[in-house]
Each structure stands twice: as C-alpha cells, then as structure tokens.
C-alpha cells in the first residue's frame, strides 16, 4: 500500500479562514486506489461551509 497526505490552512487579510486535507492511497500493483479530500471555510462574516470529495478506482 502506498499513500500520501497533505494539509493546508490559512487566514486571508479579510479575516476569512480555511483548512483542507487530502489523502490518497493505492495498492502496490495499482489495481485499487482511492482518495478523500475535504475543506472547511469560514468567511469574514462568520459563515461556515464544508466540502468533502471521495474517489475510488478498481482496475480489473
């Protein structure tokens, strides 16, 4: 199994904020792979939003 993880976060000059993460995994032979990514954001007025994406691949 191979994989990677990345994360990001930031605050903009207008006070908005975001946090994100990406995770990717795959089998050594490449037959199965998948990823999950997500982000949570808050704008300068305090409104919060979230996004999540899940992907998978099975080669046969």
Task: Describe this entry's structure for a reader.
There is one protein chain. The mean pLDDT is 93. This protein has strands at 2-11, 17-26, 32-42, 48-58. Strand 2 and strand 3 (32-42) form a beta hairpin. By secondary structure, it is mainly β. A 4-stranded antiparallel sheet has the order 1-2-3-4, with no helix packed on it. The chain is elongated and about 50 Å long. 0% of the residues are buried.
Strands, helices and their partners?
Elements: E1 2-11, E2 17-26, E3 32-42, E4 48-58
Antiparallel strand pairs: 1-2, 2-3, 3-4
Shape: elongated
- Report the radius of gyration as a whole number of Å: 15 Å
What is the H/E order?
Answer: EEEE
Specify the structural class.
mainly beta
> Share of helix among residues?
under 10%
Total tally of structural domains: 1
Could you give the distance between the termini? 17 Å
CATH class: Mainly Beta
Strand order of the largest sheet: 1-2-3-4
Number of E strands? 4
Mean pLDDT: 93
Largest sheet: 4 strands, antiparallel
CATH architecture label name: Single Sheet
What is the beta-strand fraction? over 45%
Low-confidence stretches: none
Number of helices: 0
Quaternary status of these chains? single chain
Q: Within the CATH hierarchy, at the fold level, what is the topology?
A: N-terminal domain of TfIIb
